Amino acid sequence: DPFHPPAASLFLGFAHFMLKDYSQALAVLGDYVSRAPQLLWGHLWLAATHAQLGHAEKAQAEIAELLRMDPGVTISSPVRTLTAFKHAEDNSHFYDALRKAGLPE
Question: pTM for the whole thing?
Answer without folding.
Answer: 0.89
